[in-house]
Amino acid sequence: MFQNASDLAGMAETLSRSTEYRVLRRLAPRPTSMPAPGQETRIGILLDTETTGLDHSTDEIIELGMVKFDYTPDGRIVGVRDIFSAFNEPSAPIPPEVTALTGITDGMVAGHRFDDEAITAFVDDSVVTIAHNSGFDRRFVERYWPVFEHKAWGCSATEIDWRKHGFDGAKLGYLLNGAGFFHQAHRAVDDCHALLEILDSTLPTTGAPALALLLENARKPTVRIWAEQTPFELKNSLKRRGYRWSDGSDGRPKSWYVDVCEAALDAELAFLRSEIYLRDVEPRLQTMTAFTRFSGRV
């Protein structure tokens, strides 16, 4: 029997009051608006890219999505200020596995080119850029648009310990479900709208929006430890500890490395000396902030 929208909304509300059911609503992008006059706000950018592959030095961006939003100094989202979404035709056909994942075909991007001036103008007045995998997205967009080199960045996937706050993981779709929504995944601007709702949701452990915690963590300096010339047979110990491998192809050391907060630095150095090198060493250290973190230039 056909149900109208009000009937369905009522049924959903009834189900949501029961402990036996959980209701997910289709995510509807928020309309654009400006903050109230006199309200103290800052401007952030949520960003997502779809690319032809994983190599930021050779693969190409085929879709860029951005949501510009206003937030208060304590990390509460006020509203969406503007939206940007564009395709770009790459120099070679889109790999079939990328089309299978994103739904983006060669026909959809044919004849499209990014408007570099429009992208720079869109981002220029923002104070922070946030992606759900900034270690991936920042490297790509910095190669295309230098404006991103001078912005502070936050990563919603790694700069919030989602498990600590009651979630089983950090995947975007799962976090969105936790906020009570579902959406069309793997399209750039849709993922930005999803991320907005996730960051606006209240963490049960803090009673504050997730954005507030993300900004707090992004402001803290971190230290990158380069564990150079470590014994090959101990690579699994490093991997379990969270170290990643740099092959040296991008000008960085050919080495295992890990990023830690300043408070954890002494403990990490003690681990390396006692479990890896078995002697006193002084590894190469790099201090990073939101302006350098996740950048391929570091």
Give a concise summary.
By secondary structure, the chain is an alpha/beta fold. Helix content is 31%, strand content 22%.
What is the fold's blueprint, element by element?
Layout: H1 5-16, E1 25-26, E2 42-51, E3 61-71, E4 77-87, H2 96-102, H3 106-109, H4 116-124, E5 128-131, H5 134-144, E6 152-155, H6 172-178, E7 181-182, H7 188-200, H8 210-218, E8 222-227, H9 235-240, E9 244-247, E10 254-261, H10 265-277, E11 284-288
Helix pairs in contact: 6-7
Can you walk me through this structure?
By secondary structure, the protein is of the alpha/beta class. The chain has helices at residues 5-16, 96-102, 106-109, 116-124, 134-144, 172-178, 188-200, 210-218, 235-240, 265-277, and strands spanning 25-26, 42-51, 61-71, 77-87, 128-131, 152-155, 181-182, 222-227, 244-247, 254-261, 284-288. The protein has 2 domains: 11-218, 2-Layer Sandwich (Nucleotidyltransferase, domain 5), CATH 3.30.420.10; 222-288. β9 (244-247) and β10 (254-261) form a beta hairpin. It starts with a helix and ends in a 10-residue tail after the last strand.
